[in-house]
Amino acid sequence: MQTSILLTPGPLTTSPSVRRSMNRDWGSRDADFIALTHEMRERLLKIANAAATHTAVPIAGSGSLAVEAILGTLIPPSGKLLVLSNGSYGERIYNIAVRLQRPVLIVRGAEHEPTNLSEVETALENDLSITHVAAVHCETTTGVLNPIQKIAEIVNRHGRCLIVDAMSSFGALPVDLTTTKITAIIASSNKCLEGVPGVGFSLVEANTIAMSAGQSPSFYMDMHLQWREFERSGQWRFTPPVQVVAALVQALRELEAEGGPSARGSRYNENMQTLLSGMKKMGFQTFLRGDVQAPIIATFLEPTERWFTFEKFYSGLAQRGFLIYPGKLATKPSFRIGCIGSITSVEILSFLTAVSETISDLMARLASANDVR
Ligand SMILES: *Cc1c(COP(=O)(O)O)cnc(C)c1O
Fold first, then answer.
1. Contact 339, 295 (CB under 8 A)
2. For FRET with 5, which of 47, 78, 221, 268 sits at 20 to 30 Å CA-CA?
């Protein structure tokens, strides 16, 4: 069966070999699966050059579950979190911290701008009780790229711990944890790693996770206990999503074969440039300036002409085999198009043809409706 091309931030289009890798059973406590889990953890560390400093702690669930698990495990009730927010994923981190009853402060910036570094500096100078800072690498709400290296430099200079939500960038925008000090970075199986949904994980400093016993308010989502079980037996604490793990290992092998995150980032960048120039030719406007746009997902303003409604545009594209994503801006009607996944500019060019056909179709329908009236 022909599946649609997913131009979304994930789950996204996977390769046929990743999908095929799931087509068997595994015993979760069997040596074959233990080896698969080991390979997955090693490969995740290698992507970020973190084998000497960090440990990979996966957990079953979507990315937000891993965020909640790490915040609860690393921040003690006596700690205080500063959240740097310029979109809804920053807001989500704040909401999680509130629900976990951890003291939390939020610095909010404009959705179309990267994190303001002097505001980070000021917040840390003004409140010495802040122990942890949380930042979002690519804020998927808009696609804006936040300056994670510079944020890390400031947070470390002030002696605090940095937690990074790199959900929509990990695997495509290179991060080197040997040169950039980050206490914990969090991502999931189904975005730039091009696996299927079902596993979230953190690369967390080994000494930090070792010292985090008893801090999580959750029994299930205690990442310290999760880590301890991987170290002790190589096994998952609870039933693992075995097929998701198999798909992720296959996807990680394919990432290495492609040339690692920088090669993948280049492919996504070519997808993005093809997308932006094609959409611009058809009159669409982006929400972000080009220089702050990450090569992950683009936000377009909804056209104000009468032929356009998101629902009609979406279904015209869906009929032609492409699924796009609704907008999430607080201020303006918009929609989003992702350029990540197992696709190249060939698929983006076909998509642009589908957009052009959909527009002609919707305009013709509007014209004939007007004639009837
Ligand atoms: C996708 C995403 C998440 C997690 O979303 P889930 O739906 O829980 O997988 C978190 N942060 C960012 C920046 C994301 O793009």
1. yes
2. 47
Task: State how far the Cα of 95 lies from the Cα of 97, in Å rounded to an integer.
Answer: 5
Rounded Cα gap, residues 20 and 359, in angstroms: 36
Q: Ligand 1 within 6 A of 88 CB?
A: no
Q: Which residue has the tokens 């890798």?
A: 21
Give the separation between CA 172 and CA 287, rounded to whole angstroms.
22
pTM summary value:
0.97
Residue nearest to atom 12 of ligand 1 (CA): 167
User: Is 301 in a helix, a strand, or coil?
Assistant: strand
How far away, in angstroms, is 65 Cα from ligand 1 center?
9
Spatial separation of the C-alpha atoms in residues 31 and 174, rounded to whole Å:
32
> pLDDT tens-digit profile of 112-161?
999 999 999 999 999 999 999 999 999 999 999 999 999 999 999 999 99
Distances (CA, A) of 152 to 22, 121, 136, 157: 37, 11, 12, 8
Ligand 1 and 62: CB distance under 6 A = yes
With a 6 Å cutoff on the Cβ, whether 192 touches ligand 1 is no
Per DSSP, 303 falls in state: P
The ligand 1 atom nearest the CA atom of 200: 9
User: Ligand 1 centre and the CA of 153: distance in Å?
Assistant: 24
The CA 214 to ligand 1 mean position distance, Å, reads 26
